[in-house]
Design a protein that fits this description.
heterodimer; B: mainly alpha; DNA-directed RNA polymerase (chain A); DNA-directed RNA polymerase II subunit (chain A); transcription (chain A)
Chain lengths: 176, 150
């Protein structure tokens, strides 16, 4: 799910930027530093939408750098266990398939794909029901439920399932 | 913030910080990101080079999965859903997935069932199921009307 939240960060600025454009320098540095990063707590920072306040700067001993506490609003993407969302399939193999929902990768193991769907290898590997009516392959859109998340310093990775009511393929790229 | 083990969106356990935060539907995120992208286009020749991979992927994703494209419709969806005293998170899941039946809506957002009974009568499980379903059904009807007239 996407959220609009307020975060705070201490920004260090080199003395050469002190002057009329200090604020602009600070904000462009903030965007460069923060946008595109990921933390386990807040998820992926997609875009900064505004700066709420810039606090008083504090000179660091010995370096001359100044630290400013900056409060900013941003759009973040944070997946939650139990959340249901839509995703695009990016890779299919006999272990299951990978899907992407915005910046996050989700793996759906073949144990969490309905039992009536069988893996078919070939140049377009896919999972298909025995009657051939439903097919999951690269670029399919699926609705899945996140059942687990793994967080490391710079990435969030999810495990999902489509073995539940109202989950599974939304549309099949071959039928459009 | 609650521990990792306790987190469960189906029961609306997403941590206090996010529960109180403003949630955004995919269509709203699309409006925000497209606006930002347009601004970048004005100031630089190659805007795709300026944005992070996270931004690019998110933009593609929300464009692909936006149910409502027109900004007025997006505003209406939020307005209508906010009449039903939903939590922000529930509101956005419903707006994103647009369930068609009451059963589907409850499967997508299991917490609405429980939430509704608390809001309406002060304590859970005293109100009959039929009434809850009725309210949810009305909400889904309102939503599908917006889609139809968009």
């Amino acid at each position: 799910m996407f959220f609009h939240i307020v975060l705070e960060r201490n920004m260090q600025l080199h003395p050469r930027h002190f002057g009329r454009n200090l604020r602009e320098h600070l904000i462009s540095k903030l965007m460069k530093d923060v946008e595109g990063t990921c933390s386990g707590r807040h998820g992926f920072v997609v875009a900064i939408t505004g700066v709420e306040s810039i606090g008083k700067g504090l000179i660091r001993d010995g370096t001359g750098f100044v630290t400013f506490p900056v409060k900013y609003q941003c759009v973040v993407f944070r997946p939650f266990k139990g959340e249901i969302l839509e995703a695009v399939v990016t890779m299919v193999n006999k272990m299951g398939f990978f899907a992407e929902a915005g910046p996050v990768q989700i793996f759906v193991s073949n144990h969490l794909i309905p039992d009536d769907m069988e893996f078919q290898s070939g140049d377009m590997p896919n999972y298909t029901t025995s009657d051939g009516s439903v097919k999951i392959q690269k670029d399919s859109e699926v609705r899945l439920k996140i059942i687990g998340t793994r967080v490391d310093a710079t990435e969030i990775f999810c495990i999902g399932t489509i073995k539940d009511d109202f989950l599974g393929v939304i549309n099949d790229p071959t039928t459009i | 913030m609650s521990g990792e083990e306790e987190e469960n969106a189906a029961e609306l356990k997403i941590g206090d910080e996010f529960l109180k935060a403003k949630c955004l539907m995919n269509c709203e995120v699309a409006l925000i990101l497209e606006h930002k992208y347009e601004q970048l286009q004005k100031t630089s020749d190659d805007p795709m080079n300026q944005v992070s991979q996270v931004f690019e992927k998110s933009l593609q994703y929300v464009k692909r999965f936006s149910r409502y494209k027109n900004p007025d419709a997006v505003r209406q969806v939020r307005e209508i859903l906010s009449r039903y005293q939903l939590a922000e998170f529930e509101l956005c899941v419903l707006g994103n997935l647009c369930p068609e039946t009451v059963e589907e809506a409850i499967a997508m957002v299991p917490s609405i069932k429980y939430f509704y009974s608390i809001i309406k009568c002060g304590h859970p499980h005293t109100r009959g199921r039929a009434h809850d379903d009725e309210a949810i059904e009305k909400m889904l009807n309102d939503l599908s009307l917006i889609k139809k007239f968009e």
